[in-house]
Amino acid sequence: MDGNVSHPERPMEAYNITVVGASGIVGQEFLKILDERQVPVGRLRLLATARSAGKTVAFRGADIVIEETTPASFTPDDHIVFLSASGAASKQYAPIAAANGSFVIDDSSAFRMDPAVPLVIPEINPDDLEWHRGIVSQPNCTTTPMVLALAPIHRVNPLRRVIVSTYQAVAGAGAAAVDGLRRETEAALAGRREPSGTQKRDIAFNAVPQIDVFADDGYTKEELKMANETRKILHAPDVGVSATCVRIPTFFGHAMSVWAEFERPVAVDEARALMAGAPGVELMDDPAAEQYPTPMDVAGTDRVLVGRLRPDHSKPGAITFWTVTDSIRKGAATNVVQIIEEAARRGLIRPRAGVR
Questions:
Q1: Is-catalytic flag, 141?
Q2: Fewest CB within a 10 Å sphere: which of 76, 184, 222, 307?
Q3: Mind listing the pLDDT tens digit for each residue in 203-260?
């Protein structure tokens, strides 16, 4: 893994930002986080599908009208373009925006495994931003918390193998899925079964071991994303990863149980010290006091919490732990804002001369 290149702090410019998918759950959270982190914004444009065009969104005292996304929507005046839409939309619009000189951040899986596109978690591999060619990808919402917890150990003792089971909130499937869980739950409590159709099976009071479609090897695409993205972010192509991704009936906050083996045995105390000293990770781990993180501890926050850290009794020198984060915030929108802040600090966002 690359070490962090030192860059002097510089005032952040008020960039012109265009958001594709502005009416979606991540797009809306992105705007909220821009405000929370006091990111300077010049001109803000909001794009979405024809269904959402014409709606207004309040941002810093102004009502901004959402426009329909077309190839003509993107101009050299766009300093930053954030795509939070489908993979098909990203493949269509990201190259257009990048060709205009915009700094493009994509939240879909369209470019994550493209060797010419950096896949970035700023706390782990910010130096990868240096070789972007206009497009930067951000990881899947399950990859981010797991890799944040593993990276501090991997830096001193390379990761060899990971087995992970996820327990993913419905928010990861969008606002319609959040509403679907609410409606299904209300119906179930009234003695009715009314599937919302937002998941592969009923989700209220259930657990569904399928997120995305199955590949030929029996893994889902969600599970393969975790494996491939972990290797790319850590610059560790030989790491073995086996994932099982499950949707559960919580609204916000993805959780996962992680088993990890490294090249050399790692003691729990060493792992705990390394995680505790890493940016972006917090330990909530006191078994004697029954202290451990749950999805409710991270919902609506940017925290990546780790608990239940313990030795693996089946493999001496390996460890296992539990980690949770809000998939819409650090798993998506917050990570995008952090990418913008880091790229700006490094002078990698280049406004066209004369643009205001």
A1: yes
A2: 76
A3: 999 999 999 999 999 999 999 999 999 999 999 999 999 999 999 999 999 999 999 9
Is 245 labeled as catalytic in the residue annotation?
A: no
Mean pLDDT for 7-21 is 82
Which one of the listed residues 79, 132, 154, 254 is annotated catalytic?
254
334-345 helix and 25-36 helix, angle to the nearest 10 degrees: 50
Query: Over the stretch 247-300, which tens digit does the pLDDT of each residue have?
Result: 999 999 999 999 999 999 999 999 999 999 999 999 999 999 999 999 999 999
DSSP state of 330: I
Judging by DSSP bridges, how do beta strands 41-48 and 67-68 pair with one another? parallel
Amino acid at 333: A
Active site residue: 141, 235, 245, 313, which one? 141
Query: Model pTM?
Result: 0.93
- The two structure tokens encoding residue 90: 């990203």
Residues 323, 351: Cα–Cα separation, whole Å? 39
Residues whose CB falls within 8 Å of the CB of residue 6, separated by 6 or more in sequence, listed in order: none
Tokens representing 187 are 């119906």
Beta-sheet pairing, 67-68 with 254-262:
unpaired
Which DSSP string corresponds to 338-351? Answer: HHHHHHHHTT---P
- On whether the CB atoms of residues 174 and 84 are closer than 8 A, the answer is no
Q: For residues 264 and 317, is the Cβ–Cβ distance under 8 A?
A: yes
Sign of CA dihedral 133, 138, 144, 148: positive
> Mapping DSSP to helix (H, G, I), strand (E, B) and coil, where does residue 95 land?
helix
Output the six-digit token pair for 313.
């009794």
Q: How far apart are CA 136 and CA 126, in angstroms?
A: 11
DSSP 8-state symbol, 75: -
